[in-house]
Amino acid sequence: MATVQIAILAAGMGTRLKRPMPKPLTPLDDGRTILQQQVDNVRTVFGDDARVILVVGFKHELLMEAQPDLLFAYNEDYDQTNTSKSLLKALRGSSDGPVIWMNGDVVFDPEVLRRLRPLLDDGRSAIAVNTAATADEEVKYTVGADGFVDALSKQVTDALGEAVGINLVAAADKATLIRRLEQCDDQDYFERAIELAVEHDGLRVTPVDISDLFAVEVDNASDLARAIEQRQAYERRQ
């Protein structure tokens, strides 16, 4: 089986959390950082051979020192661009084959990655979604009659749920997504490229429901507290 490729987008400044270090280096209650629990989850599900690319930018030396065994892509315009351009760096630096990518601020149950594994093996693109929540500030989605994603943004109305920031692009779809990421504005989130590819290229993206699991994007102090609470609840269930 081909080596699994994972991209973690960690270039941003994370100003809403109001901490001096890159947000992925924020410590959790168990002593690990957000980034370390992500890497641990990847190794737990996919093994030590998984190829992990970390996209760095803001205070990149700290991230590289914290994870010296990973591969790196540098978004030198981290203070002027959004996740569309960080993902573009990651995909351009990837080898042939599919890529799972995640935002560098997601605290999550490793089972989320196991849910994506069958789609990875089947050559299908996907996004992990939570159908139990549709907060205004989060990226939301709808599906068409065929069951595939047809809208994906913070502006979606009548949403079915939220995207949790963990996604998969199939090998056959990667060139299309790269082309659409290249067309995105600097401040676009990567979800804009997915929408463009769905609308203009017929990209089929399967929503994978992880509502019974936990996955929290940490944007602020209340998110961090919620992530810690849900991680502790997960540990108690093990």
Number of helices: 7
Helix content: 25-40%
Described by its quaternary structure, the protein is: single chain
What is the global morphology?
Answer: globular
Number of strands: 11
Poorly predicted spans: none
Q: Largest sheet, described in full?
A: 9 strands, mixed
Radius of gyration: 16 Å
What would your notes on this structure say?
The protein has 238 residues and is of the alpha/beta class. The chain has seven helices and eleven strands. Helix 2 (60-66) links the parallel strand 2 and strand 3 (71-74). Helix 3 (83-92) packs across helix 5 (171-183), helix 3 crosses helix 6 and helix 5 (171-183) crosses helix 6. The relative contact order is 0.18.
Task: Please summarize what this structure is.
Helices cover 35% and strands 24% of the residues. It is α/β, with parallel strands linked by helices and 238 residues long.
Topology diagram in text:
Blueprint: E1 5-10, H1 34-46, E2 51-56, H2 60-66, E3 71-74, H3 83-92, E4 99-103, E5 106-108, H4 111-122, E6 125-130, E7 140-143, E8 149-153, E9 161-169, H5 171-183, H6 190-201, E10 205-209, E11 215-217, H7 221-237
Parallel strand pairs: 1-2, 1-4, 2-3, 6-10
Antiparallel strand pairs: 4-9, 5-11, 6-9, 7-8, 7-9
Helix pairs in contact: 3-5, 3-6, 5-6
What key phrases describe this protein's structure?
238 residues, alpha/beta, 9-stranded mixed sheet, two-stranded antiparallel ribbon, 7 helices, 35% helix, globular
